[in-house]
Amino acid sequence: MTAQIGQEGFHMQLFNFIRLIRQFLLASLLVVSSTGAWATSSCKANYSAFTLSMPASVAVARDAANGSLLTAWVQTSQLTNYYTCTVTQSTGTGVDFETAGIVTSTRTAYQVPYNGYSLSVYPTNVPGIGIAMGGSIYINGCSWGAFTDFSRLGAQCNSNGTVTNGGQLVVALVKTGDITPGTVSGLVAQAFSWEGATSAPAGDNPAAGVINFSITPVAITVMTCTTPDVSVPMGTFKTTDFPSVGSLSPNPAGFAIQLLNCPGGTAVSGTQAGQIHSIQYRIDPTSGTLATNVAALSGSPSATGVGIELFNSSGAVFPLATSTTLSGYNSASGGSYSIPMTARYYRTGTVTAGPANATMTLTVSYQ
User: What's the pLDDT tens digit per position in 27-78?
Assistant: First the structure.
């Protein structure tokens, strides 16, 4: 009996000891949990939306270089109070910007300079038109952060008490490819309260309020001239009209290249928008050349031993497959222009009779 009573007493003591350990651990967990609950941040947006006023229309030369700035820079006011936060235990709060609306999160390959900074360009809803964005963040006790690219436009700082966080957004339109005329308009970015950590950003908190940033409508037009097709009657000739290699046909055929209704405009300072700065044109033979600046004939059957040579108004040989600047073009007023030329057959070898037709392509470039 004595041994059994002692064994039961041992078990009771062991059970009480384990229970005390559990009570101690539970008390410790409660202490830790209550301490963690003290660190809080409660933020509320003071604004719901901002609108950036853009130009009503932008006219772009069709062949302006990709990456060209098309508008002046437009910015929101520098505000320190996008959000008001009540913070305890040095919880981190701040502001984060994200793309939205007509702007996708995937950046283009282009970057443009802004006051010494290089800003990424994002696609918009109009093909060939992108938007460059950047800005800075104001965070309570940490003040204004450095201006930065939109892809890094977010910051957070630890603080206590009632604090405010704000920022500024800067945007401009950029040419990114072949433009389809259209209207760029709508939501481009959103700001979020960035909160909930003591040493590193925890994430956006939409519940604090989302601030929308939109741009006013911008109608995009492409500036070009009208270039009608040209048919040149060359006439009929005999093989004896070409006595030797290098002989030209008599009676040159006159014609003119027409560049009609070329738009004029006023250049937007610091951009490639508003006007055509210069016009260039070139002529390429569809079937290649037989000799320097001598276009080969096309079609079958065809005469042989001759090609077609073009001449400018001064009688000089016109260079094929070479860009020539349109002289006299007025970029401010625009207008219609006529380029007088002549065409003649040129003997390149043994001449045989037959149709002597050729086609050539006119390419006009606008910068």
Answer: 333 333 333 345 688 999 999 999 999 999 999 999 999 999 999 999 999 9
Q: In this structure, are 328 and 356 located in the same domain?
A: yes
Q: pTM above 0.85?
A: no
Tokens (6 digits) for 137:
């963040």
CA distance readout (Å), 314 to 23, 241, 248: 107, 24, 17
Say which CATH number the domain at 114 has.
2.60.40.3310
Residue 7 in domain = no
Q: Within this chain, do residues 144 and 268 fall inside the same structural domain, yes or no?
A: no
* Partners of 175 in the β-ladder: 129
C-alpha–C-alpha distance, residues 56 and 184, integer Å: 10
d(CA 179, CA 126): 8
Whole-number Å distance between alpha carbons of 53 and 25: 62
Is residue 121 domain-shared with residue 259, that is, in the same domain? no
> Is 50 within the bounds of a domain?
yes
Reduced DSSP (H G I as helix, E B as strand, rest coil) percent helix, strand, coil of the chain, to 5: 15, 45, 40
The whole domain housing 151 covers 41-223
Terminal Cα distance for the chain, rounded: 111
Q: What is the pLDDT of residues 196-230, one digit of tens each?
A: 765 555 689 999 999 999 999 999 999 999 999 99
